[in-house]
Amino acid sequence: MRRYVDFWVIGEERERAVELLRALARLGYSDAVMELKGDLAWSFEELRDAAAEAGVRLHRKLVLKPNSRKELLQELRRSRGKFEVITVVCESLEVALVAARDSRVDSLIIPPKSGFRIDKGVASTIRNCVELPFSWYLANRQLFLEAALRVIQILGRRVGVIVSSASSSALLLRGPIELASLPWVLGYPQERALDTVSKTPSQIIERNLLKLSSNYVCRGVVKIGEEDEEEVPADIL
């Protein structure tokens, strides 16, 4: 059985955030990755309890929109170890080239109106997952589909692709099958399309939860007992 993940929902106010989590549970998601805005940034534990009550695991997400390479690196240093997921919106090629290879970045988003185009040269540098926010499709279908098609055609075989809601409203959420239909109609095989809302984001979350746990020692080594350590396969860490 697949576990479905909405890799980006936005919490702006407590009651709406709780309703968002309940709606995700009704739609069949098991995990939600939420960007917390305003005062909600200090309410993660409370929201996590509400999510658990609804039947959803909640994880924190940081979305960075840096203007330069220097700004991105500064933000990554300040945020290290504080979030389960870090996503970078790449408005420029300079930012994209850094975010594409930095191990602290979990996904990058290439806006439809970015200052660069995805070509084979850019594609060869990208190592991290590329995220497609569905709410951006609702905002401007033609521009978003053009950008999403380039991602699928040029990057789809090289890196993981994730589709997320990127919504702060329960009314604008879509079920996992609906989100997966986006890469499917753009040319992804059905199983790989389903991976964009299940396997690919789940692996990132589990890897990062392990890294943030007190048992994590270094890449490939995790504490099992107080004195014992066990090597863990590198693809997990």
Secondary structure elements and their pairing?
Elements: E1 5-11, H1 14-27, E2 31-36, H2 44-54, E3 57-64, H3 69-79, E4 85-89, H4 93-99, E5 107-109, H5 120-123, E6 129-133, H6 134-139, H7 141-155, E7 161-164, H8 176-185, H9 190-195, H10 199-212, E8 216-218, E9 221-223, E10 229-231
Parallel strand pairs: 1-2, 2-3, 3-4, 4-5, 5-6, 6-7
Antiparallel strand pairs: 8-9, 9-10
Helix pairs in contact: 1-2
What does this structure look like?
Helices cover 41% and strands 20% of the residues. It has 237 residues and is of the alpha/beta class. It has a single domain (5-197), classed as Metal-dependent hydrolases (TIM Barrel, Alpha-Beta Barrel), CATH 3.20.20. α1 links the parallel β1 and β2. The longest helix has 15 residues, at 141-155. The two termini are 23 Å apart. The model is unreliable at 227-234 (pLDDT under 50).
